[in-house]
Amino acid sequence: MAWALRILLILLLAAAAWLWWLLDGSVPSKDTIEGRLLGLDKNAPFRAVGLQRRELEVAAGKADGTADGTGNAATGELTYVHVPRRAGVADPLPADAPPIVLVHPTPHTLFTWSEVLFGPGGLAGRCDVYALEIVGHGVTRTPWPKGGGFQTGADWIAAALRALGLRDVCLVGQSYGGEFAWRCALDHPDLVGRLVLIDSSGYPRADGDWLPEEVVMRQNALASIGYALNARERVRGALQVHFRAPVPADRVEEVFQVCESADSWRAMIDLVRDENGTRHAELIGLRQPTLVIWGQQDHAYAVERYGRRFAADIPDARLVTIAECGHYPQEERPAEVAAAIAAFLGAP
User: Of 103-112, 180-189, 191-200, 201-210, where does mean pLDDT reach its minimum?
Assistant: First the structure.
């Protein structure tokens, strides 16, 4: 029997080693993922500008924006891109236009804004623009906290604005990034002067509104290790429903690389499970002028059910819809998104 036990122990150790390799040992480092993302042709302007990093402190808080009484705070490393206003650029925004701060969706990264910033009619150089990486996402080295949710993203943005010395910004968020943004605006009106929501989350969703992959992520106990099954064709299939035209290969590759990260993946799972509209009743309390931009063919958040509701519930809001566009206007119609933001900030 002793030899049988030894064989069983060897097999168990081999299985454990294989499982470790599958779940963590095969996961590329953030340095590797960053190099691959910066190597994409669409991200060449980011290579030229360069990523920047800064230490910041994130105070623990509650959903209502008040301190939690513990005095706890987490330190982290913010990854961001700053594109300053440039003299002589065509179509500059008014001199008094606030800094624009761009917040990406999940599981994306700050590179989602490449065309809005650097494409034809983009915002680069026309005013001060920052693109932030949210904790746990993309190429940030600060891990996603266990049990984090939408408030985690909102608190991270507030800490980032303070670390960068920014106030009265125009905060732009898309999808889950939109909910990070409007929560931050509610909690920190001193930091956010204007708000742009692009196909944002925030309201309770009916059972029939969840996409099949979202149902799996919300209900399957093993979903948190789904990064081990990451594949380009799966990413392509998940993205294609949100686009009118075939998704470009570099866009697929970008999201695939982000999903290679166990940290980014776990952030996505936590956020999908946290999406339940717990603060939507507070939207009436937003006092910032707000622009709501929505793709008319958004299958995740239909404009009639969600976009128009944001525009109706936020006191000083107006809605701009984009034809022939799905859930990601910043990727599918970047020039129109940039133009809408510029007009919102006073561009002629």
Answer: 201-210
The CATH number given to whatever domain includes residue 320 is 3.40.50.1820
pLDDT > 90? residue 5: no
Q: Which two tokens stand for residue 276?
A: 């339940």
CA 46 to chain centre: 17
Report in angstroms the alpha-carbon separations of 254 from 9, 138, 141, 311, 330.
41, 10, 18, 31, 15
Domain that holds residue 242: 29-344
Instruction: Choose among 269, 59, 70: nearest CA to 184.
Output: 59
Note the pLDDT tens digit of each residue in 135-144. 999 999 999 9
Please give the tally of structural domains in the chain. Answer: 1
Write the burial class of residue 293 (CB in 10 Å: 0-12 exposed, 13-18 middle, 19+ buried): buried
Mapping DSSP to helix (H, G, I), strand (E, B) and coil, where does residue 218 land? helix
- Give 80's strand partners: 52, 132
The predicted-structure confidence for 229-240, as pLDDT tens digits, reads as follows 999 999 999 999
